[in-house]
C-alpha cells in the first residue's frame, strides 16, 4: 500500500508543480507512516508551507479514505527553487548512488544488498557502538598506537561530529604553533558542500591533519584529523548545515581520504563514529568502511541495540564486522558475564573477543595509555591479521589457483602411492615374520624418513612443516616475490625483534645473512601455509588458524586408531608372531598411528580432490554429511562461510576428514 501511495502522490505533485527537467519530487514514507517529501520546484517553493501541507494531506485522504489516511502523518516538507538546489548540490533520486547510507535507507530496502570487497590499498575501519561510554574511542586510540608500534601508518578521523573529542585529546599537537592546524573535518566538508567553485576552496588537505609524536619508539606514524580545533558557535552552525547524503553522493569523504593517501601513504584509516541510530553513525559504517569494529558493554541495552544494528548491516550486505565486548572486570565472574551476553548475539559465528576494564584509564584524560596496551592486544592482533587476509585475496586473484591445486594433488598422490606400497609390505603374507619396527625400516628403505614415520608425539608443528614442504614447489617462489614487494604489510613479521637481536650478536656477515634468510623463509613459509588453508583470518573467525583445528582432529583420529589403548612402546615391542594373531584392520590402524605423515597426505589429497571438483563445477558432497560424522559444532558453523577465492576451503578439509573416518571404520 505504501508504494502505491507514493506513486499516487508523486504523480499528483509532478502534475501540479514540475514544469521542466531541472525540477523533481522525492517521497519517503517511514516505517511509522510518516510522509517526508522533498520538492525542487519554483512554484512549490513560493507556496505557503501550511497551504502545501494541507494540499498533500488532502491527497492522502483522497486516495486512502478517512479511516486508513488517519494512520499517516505529514512529516518534513522541504521545498527548494532550482537555484537553491544547485547551490546545495541536491540530486534527483534516480541520479543518486544506490548504496544505503542511513539506517532508514536500509529499513526500506526491498532486498539484501550484496557485499563488495574494496580494492583500495589501505583499510578504512570504523569503530562503532550503539551506546556511549563503552570505551569505543579508547579502544580506537590504543589499537592505533599498538599498530604504529609494529610499523603501520595510521590516520585517526573524528567522525563523532555531534560530540567531538580529538581536539581535546590531542590538543598539545593540534595547538602547536609550528606543526598545529587551524581547521577540522567539519570545516573542510562544509566548504565543499556550500562552495560553488572548487578553485575558491581555501581549506586544503594539509590544513586539517597533524602528526602525533607520542614517543620515539614508534616504527610507524599516527596522524589525526579532528572534527574541529575548538567547539564554537560557528562549528555548531556548520554542523547543522551538513547533510550525509550530499557528502556521500558527491564523494567528499572518498576524495578526502584518497587525497590524504597520496600525501601520507598510510596503511589504515580509523574512524571514530557517532553512537546510536543516526546519520553520522550510519554514514561511514554503511557508506565506505572496509571493516567495522562494534564495541559493546555487556548489558541488556547494549546487546539489544547491537542486535538491531547487526541485522541492519546484514540486510545492507555487510558481513565485515567484529564484536568486541568491553569494560568488564577480568576476573572469573566478569569474563563469564561478558561471554554470556556475547552469546546472545546469535548468528555472528565469531569467537569471543574482550577488552578488560582498566579503572585508572577513566581518570588519565591522556591518550594513548602507553603502559596499558595488554587488554587491546587481541583486537590489534586481529586487525594486523586482516592486512594479510586482504593481501592474500589479491594475491590469489593473480594466480591460477586450480592449476596450483592440481600440482599439489599430483605430488600428494605420488606420496600416497609410496605409502600404499609400504602398507602392503607390512600387512602382506610375510607379516608374521615382521615386527612393526621392521615395517618402519622397510618404509625407510622406500624413501620415507624414519622421523616422519615413527613419531612419539604428533604436534601442530609437524602438520605445519609437512604442508609447508608440500607447498614449496608450487607457491613458495611466487609468494616470496609478492611478499617482498609488499613489505609494508609484512614488515612486522619480516623484522621481528628476535631477528635484530640475533643480527647484533652475529660473528660474521655470513652468519648474519644466513640468520636473515632462515628467518625470512620461516616467516614466508608460515604465510604460504596460511594462504594454502585460506584461513588466516575472517570476520567470523578471529585469529585462529586452521592448523590448530586440523591438528586437534588428527589427534582424535590417531587416538581412535591406536588399538586396545596400547602405547607406542607396547606396540613397538610386539613380535611378528603376536602381530600375526591380530586382524589386519588393527595392524592397519597401527600403521596409521605411526605413519601420521601419510595420514595427513591422504586427508589433504582427498580434500584437494573435493576442492578441484568444486572449482570445476563437478559434483561436490553437501555440508550436512560432514556434520553428521562427529564434527565439532563450531567447525560446522564455519563450513558455510568458506570463501570461494580461498586456496583450500574448510568444507573440503572437513569432508576429507569424514572420508578418512569412514575408511577407518570400514577397515
Describe the structure.
- The protein is an alpha/beta fold and 667 residues long.
- It folds into three domains: 2-95, GMP Synthetase, Chain A, domain 3; 123-389, 3-Layer(aba) Sandwich (Rossmann fold), CATH 3.40.50; 399-462 and 536-666, no CATH class.
- The strands form two sheets. Strands 6-7-5-8-4-9-10-11 form an eight-stranded mixed beta sheet, sandwiched between helices. A three-stranded mixed beta sheet has the order 1-2-3.
- The relative contact order is 0.08.
- Helix 19 runs antiparallel to helix 30, helix 29 packs across helix 30 (596-615) and helix 30 packs across helix 33.
- Helix 15 (300-315) links the parallel strand 9 and strand 10 (321-328).
- The protein is globular, with a radius of gyration of 31 Å.
- It contains 33 helices and eleven strands.
Amino acid at each position: 500500500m505504501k508504494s502505491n501511495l507514493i506513486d499516487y502522490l508523486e504523480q499528483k505533485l509532478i502534475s501540479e508543480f514540475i514544469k521542466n527537467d531541472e525540477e523533481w519530487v522525492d517521497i519517503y514514507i517511514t516505517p511509522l507512516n510518516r510522509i517526508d517529501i522533498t520538492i525542487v520546484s519554483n512554484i512549490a517553493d513560493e507556496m505557503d508551507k501550511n497551504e502545501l501541507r494541507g494540499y498533500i494531506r488532502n491527497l492522502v485522504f483522497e486516495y486512502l479514505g478517512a479511516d486508513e489516511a488517519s494512520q499517516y502523518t505529514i512529516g518534513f516538507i522541504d521545498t527548494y527553487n532550482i537555484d537553491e538546489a544547485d547551490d546545495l548540490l541536491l540530486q534527483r533520486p534516480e541520479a543518486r548512488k544506490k548504496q544505503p547510507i542511513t539506517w532508514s535507507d536500509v529499513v526500506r530496502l526491498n532486498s539484501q544488498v550484496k557485499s563488495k570487497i574494496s580494492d583500495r590499498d589501505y583499510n578504512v575501519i570504523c569503530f562503532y557502538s550503539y551506546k556511549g561510554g563503552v570505551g569505543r574511542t579508547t579502544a580506537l586510540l590504543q589499537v592505533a598506537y599498538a599498530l604504529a608500534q609494529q610499523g603501520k601508518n595510521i590516520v585517526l578521523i573524528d567522525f563523532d561530529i555531534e560530540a567531538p573529542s580529538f581536539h581535546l585529546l590531542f590538543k598539545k599537537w593540534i595547538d602547536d604553533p609550528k606543526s598545529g592546524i587551524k581547521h577540522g573535518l567539519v570545516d573542510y566538508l562544509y566548504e565543499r558542500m556550500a562552495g560553488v567553485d572548487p578553485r575558491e576552496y581555501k581549506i586544503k588537505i594539509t590544513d586539517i591533519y597533524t602528526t602525533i609524536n607520542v614517543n620515539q619508539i614508534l616504527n610507524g606514524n599516527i596522524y589525526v584529523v579532528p572534527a574541529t580545533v575548538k567547539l564554537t558557535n560557528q562549528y555548531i552552525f556548520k554542523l547543522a548545515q551538513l547533510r550525509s547524503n550530499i557528502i556521500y553522493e558527491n564523494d567528499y569523504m572518498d576524495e578526502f581520504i584518497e587525497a590524504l593517501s597520496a600525501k601520507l601513504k598510510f596503511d589504515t584509516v580509523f574512524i571514530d563514529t557517532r553512537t546510536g541510530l543516526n546519520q553520522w553513525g550510519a554514514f561511514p559504517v554503511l557508506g565506505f568502511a572496509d571493516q567495522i569494529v562494534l564495541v559493546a558493554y555487556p548489558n541488556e541495552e547494549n546487546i539489544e541495540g547491537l542486535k538491531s544494528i547487526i541485522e541492519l548491516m546484514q540486510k545492507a550486505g555487510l558481513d565485515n564486522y567484529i564484536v568486541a565486548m568491553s569494560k568488564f572486570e577480568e576476573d572469573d565472574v566478569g569474563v563469564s558475564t561478558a561471554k554470556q551476553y556475547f552469546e546472545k548475539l546469535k548468528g555472528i559465528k565469531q569467537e569471543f573477543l574482550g577488552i578488560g576494564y582498566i579503572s585508572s584509564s577513566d581518570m588519565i584524560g591522556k591518550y594513548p595509555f602507553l603502559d596499558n596496551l595488554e587488554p587491546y592486544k587481541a583486537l590489534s592482533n586481529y586487525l594486523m591479521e586482516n592486512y594479510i587476509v586482504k593481501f592474500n585475496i589479491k594475491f590469489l586473484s593473480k594466480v591460477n589457483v586450480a592449476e596450483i591445486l592440481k600440482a599439489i594433488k599430483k605430488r600428494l598422490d605420488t606420496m600416497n602411492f609410496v605409502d600404499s606400497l609400504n602398507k602392503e609390505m607390512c600387512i602382506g603374507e610375510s607379516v608374521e615374520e615382521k615386527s612393526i619396527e621392521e615395517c618402519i625400516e622397510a618404509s625407510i628403505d622406500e624413501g620415507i624418513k624414519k622421523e616422519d614415520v615413527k613419531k612419539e608425539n604428533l604436534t601442530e608443528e609437524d602438520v605445519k612443516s609437512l604442508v609447508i614442504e608440500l607447498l614449496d614447489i608450487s607457491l613458495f617462489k611466487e609468494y616470496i616475490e609478492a611478499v617482498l614487494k609488499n613489505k609494508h604489510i609484512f614488515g612486522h613479521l619480516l623484522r621481528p625483534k628476535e631477528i635484530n637481536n640475533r643480527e647484533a650478536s652475529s660473528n660474521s656477515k655470513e652468519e648474519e645473512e644466513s640468520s636473515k634468510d632462515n628467518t625470512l623463509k620461516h616467516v614466508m613459509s608460515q604465510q604460504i601455509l596460511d594462504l594454502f588453508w585460506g584461513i588466516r583470518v575472517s570476520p567470523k573467525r578471529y585469529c585462529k588458524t586452521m592448523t590448530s583445528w586440523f591438528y586437534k582432529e588428527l589427534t582424535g583420529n590417531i587416538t581412535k586408531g591406536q588399538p586396545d589403548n596400547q602405547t607406542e612402546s607396547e606396540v613397538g615391542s610386539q613380535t611378528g608372531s603376536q602381530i600375526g594373531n591380530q586382524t589386519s584392520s588393527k595392524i592397519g590402524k597401527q600403521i596409521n598411528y605411526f605413519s601420521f605423515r601419510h595420514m595427513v597426505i591422504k586427508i589433504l589429497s582427498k580434500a584437494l580432490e573435493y576442492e578441484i571438483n568444486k572449482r570445476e563445477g563437478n559434483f561436490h558432497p553437501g555440508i550436512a554429511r560432514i556434520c553428521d560424522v562427529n564434527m565439532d559444532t563450531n567447525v560446522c558453523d564455519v563450513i558455510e562461510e568458506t570463501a570461494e577465492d580461498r586456496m583450500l576451503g574448510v568444507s573440503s578439509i572437513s569432508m576429507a576428514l569424514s572420508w578418512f573416518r569412514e575408511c577407518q571404520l570400514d577397515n
